[in-house]
Design a protein that fits this description.
The chain has 361 residues and is of the alpha+beta class. The chain is built from 12 helices and 10 strands. The chain has 2 domains: 122 residues, no CATH class; 131 residues, endopeptidase fold (from Nostoc punctiforme) (Alpha-Beta Complex). A hairpin with a 2-residue loop joins β7 and β8.
């Protein structure tokens, strides 16, 4: 039988801090798997939380958003309670409180802002290799209808399908957690059995039509025609590291070698510094220093390639940095346990924490 004593300890601590989670084998197993997936050695911090608390210290001191060493177990539980009760995790917390299946919770953590992508695999390993129940298949996007009108070869401009459909699909996917949270609350009030919505699908890139004027780098929208060659190269390279699921590692700035960028790893500021170095633009190493480099741009007037700085720790206005890619999105190496990924500025968590924008080229 799997050892879930760590999960039981975490569950007791979180409830002591006021989280009000159900005391069930399902919840204990989920929390144990989450701890196993994070694998952190930070003191009193099983899920690699980055929230600063009085007297806490950075476990990975030179990362953009460092995981914290907490002074006592009680401080660690309080930090996790504060983080999990923030609006960005409302759907996850509601599902936890309704004792949703561990497999569903693992998928929510893996695909959500926390980004512990190895959690489903850790849960499977903990439960003896049994795969989590498969979610219903995502709806298939029908192929684009043939263009009506003049032959494109005769000079008509064909709008690439990916530039239209991918942003729409991404926004639909982002609704999953809020809808699940609402459903969980309704079921709890009505005493209904739990029903989990299918996990938010990972939307594959649609086959791109041959562009006539737009240059694509695999992002959801074409880069504006006035973007410089350097910016195009930075974003194309950033996207390739996202496709390779390059991990976040504190203090790292490793580009890797060969197909799939083998051995690559970054923290948030190392990712930005590395990408710009590849086009001959040398910027400082830390996010705090980067926030003073280049030239300032008013928030809301950012362009692809600009660096976005976030206050994710409560006191540091540049504790996290990402690279704006257009369409209200940015790419970054977010935190321990996550991989290089694209996030939405419309997400309340990031929208409320964006502090400054700097242009490097």
């Amino acid at each position: 039988m799997a050892d879930t004593s760590g999960g039981a300890r975490i569950l007791a601590g979180l409830n002591q801090a006021g989280l009000r989670l159900p005391v069930t084998p399902n919840m204990t197993t989920f929390l144990q798997a989450w701890q196993n997936a994070e694998g952190t050695r930070a003191a009193n911090n099983p899920f690699a939380d980055t929230l600063k608390m009085p007297g806490s210290t950075a476990f990975n001191w030179n990362a953009g958003t460092p995981v914290q060493n907490y002074t006592t177990p009680e401080q660690g539980w309080a930090a996790l309670n504060t983080t999990l009760t923030s609006p960005i995790y409302s759907g996850l917390l509601s599902a936890m409180r309704s004792n949703a299946p561990a497999s569903h919770l693992a998928q929510m953590v893996a695909s959500g802002p926390w980004g512990t992508h190895d959690l489903p695999a850790a849960l499977s390993a903990l439960t003896g290799g049994a795969a989590p129940p498969a979610a219903p298949a995502a709806p298939t996007v029908p192929a684009a209808a043939p263009a009506v009108g003049p032959n494109p070869a005769a000079g008509a401009r064909v709008l690439p399908a990916a530039s239209v459909m991918n942003p729409m699909l991404a926004r639909l996917s982002a609704l999953h957690d809020p809808l699940q949270g609402m459903l969980n609350r309704i079921q709890g009030l009505a005493g209904m059995p739990h029903f989990a919505l299918p996990s938010a699908p990972v939307i594959p890139s649609l086959p791109a039509q041959t562009p006539t004027q737009d240059v694509h780098v695999g992002l959801t929208d074409p880069i504006p025609a006035n973007a410089s060659t350097s910016v195009r190269r930075v974003l194309a390279l950033a996207k390739s590291y996202q496709a390779a699921k390059t991990p976040y590692v504190f203090g790292a700035e490793r580009g890797g070698t060969g197909p799939g960028h083998a051995g690559a790893a970054f923290d948030c500021s190392g990712f930005a510094q590395y990408l710009y170095a590849q086009v001959g633009v040398h910027i400082p190493r830390t996010s705090e220093e980067q926030a003073r480099a280049g030239r300032g741009v008013r928030v809301g007037q950012q362009q692809p390639g600009d660096l976005l700085f976030f206050n994710t720790e409560g006191s540091d206005p540049a504790s996290h940095v990402g690279i704006y890619v257009g369409d209200d999105q940015f790419i970054a190496a977010p935190h321990t346990g996550a991989v290089v990924s694209i996030s939405n500025l419309s997400d309340p968590y990031y929208a409320s924490r964006l502090r400054s924008v700097r242009r490097m080229v």
